[in-house]
């Protein structure tokens, strides 16, 4: 198990009357994790706490195994941050900003220039790197913010709404770059978003925050895959069919029960059990009208967790 990118233990953080993080306990270990939540759910507050930019009132935050409060400079060295809002000086070029920030983060001049060329190339800005940022499109400004987060060679980047305000083409470009970070470059990613689709396309796991609390944490792709729970609708002698199937299911560690929407529910559907379902149906003259996955889709889980329906 790799060192968690981010660990929160009972973190509470209050802004006046607003409890932005409410006893948040969380372990983020996936190569790329998406933080999803409605406006005000606490995503930015969590990312800023992870950098030590704001300090929780209670609890602890560790990043890559380091305590953010006690080892702040270590954390800053290993982590890059892309803030949500514009923060770069409009009269400087992307080249100058990146070199300057790389030097501030401890790189020598030669390394700072070399790394700047690499990251501006990686985000597709090598051609325009000497133009003032004020002349950049929003997409180019976002990519510059990402480049500066990468320039000192961090192990982890925290991206606050990397696709915010981008048009469809800019969004596609940004999503492709973010996906490459963890998949091809081995840089761990924690990225916030309002959009599940962005997270599904760039991350391995989704963490849903709701009112400063952990509402759900799920892999983006179910490990159960095609062998997950199923419900089976049967015509004919359901009880006899279930009794015949029971020993086979049990032998494969699969629970068999009456189904809430079909006639039978299987807790998993390994091939051997599905083969037995079909063979027994033929042998007993039972008709199988439907086999459907009973696994809840990621979207259902996320919608519930976000309380989108007012829950
Ligand atoms: N500096 C601050 N002063 C006062 N309240 C703040 C401050 N920063 C955040 N908050 C409040 O804390 C709560 C969490 O805000 P946060 O920005 O972390 O949410 P978010 O999930 O990032 O939302 P968004 O998607 O809108 O960016 C909100 O109610 C917000 O108004």
UniProtKB/TrEMBL annotation:
CDD domains: ABC_DR_subfamily_A. SUPFAM superfamilies: P-loop containing nucleoside triphosphate hydrolases. Gene3D superfamilies: P-loop containing nucleotide triphosphate hydrolases (3.40.50.300). The keyword Repressor does not apply. One of its GO terms (molecular function) is ATP binding. It holds the Pfam family ABC_tran. Residues 6-236 form the ABC transporter domain. Keywords: ATP-binding, Nucleotide-binding, Transport. The keyword Lyase does not apply. InterPro entries: AAA+_ATPase, ABC_transporter-like_ATP-bd, P-loop_NTPase. Belongs to the ABC transporter superfamily. This is ABC transporter ATP-binding protein.
């Amino acid at each position: 198990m790799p060192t968690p990118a981010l660990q929160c233990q009972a973190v509470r953080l209050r802004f006046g009357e607003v409890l932005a993080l409410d006893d948040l306990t969380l372990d983020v270990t996936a190569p790329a994790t998406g933080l999803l939540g409605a406006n005000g759910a606490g995503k930015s507050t969590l990312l800023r706490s992870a950098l030590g930019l704001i300090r929780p009132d209670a609890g602890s935050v560790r990043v890559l195994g380091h305590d953010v409060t006690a080892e702040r400079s270590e954390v800053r060295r290993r982590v890059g941050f892309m803030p949500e809002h514009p923060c770069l000086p409009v009269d400087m070029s992307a080249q100058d900003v990146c070199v300057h920030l790389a030097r501030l983060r401890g790189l020598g001049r030669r390394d700072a220039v070399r790394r700047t060329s690499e990251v501006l190339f990686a985000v597709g800005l090598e051609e325009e790197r000497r133009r003032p940022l004020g002349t950049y499109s929003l997409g180019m400004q976002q990519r510059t913010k990402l480049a500066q987060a990468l320039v000192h060679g961090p192990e982890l980047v925290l991206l606050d709404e990397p696709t915010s305000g981008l048009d469809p083409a800019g969004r596609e470009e940004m999503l492709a770059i973010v996906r490459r970070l963890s998949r091809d470059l081995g840089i761990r990613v924690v990225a916030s978003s309002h959009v599940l689709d962005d997270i599904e396309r760039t991350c391995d796991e989704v963490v849903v925050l709701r009112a400063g609390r952990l509402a759900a944490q799920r892999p983006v792709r179910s490990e159960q895959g095609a062998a997950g729970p199923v419900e089976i609708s049967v015509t004919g002698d359901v009880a006899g069919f279930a009794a015949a199937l029971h020993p086979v299911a049990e032998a494969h560690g699969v629970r068999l029960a009456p189904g809430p929407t079909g006639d039978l529910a299987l807790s998993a559907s390994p091939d051997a059990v599905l083969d037995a379902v079909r063979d027994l149906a033929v042998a007993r003259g039972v008709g199988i009208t439907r086999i459907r996955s009973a696994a809840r889709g990621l979207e259902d889980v996320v919608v519930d967790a976000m309380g989108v329906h007012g829950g």
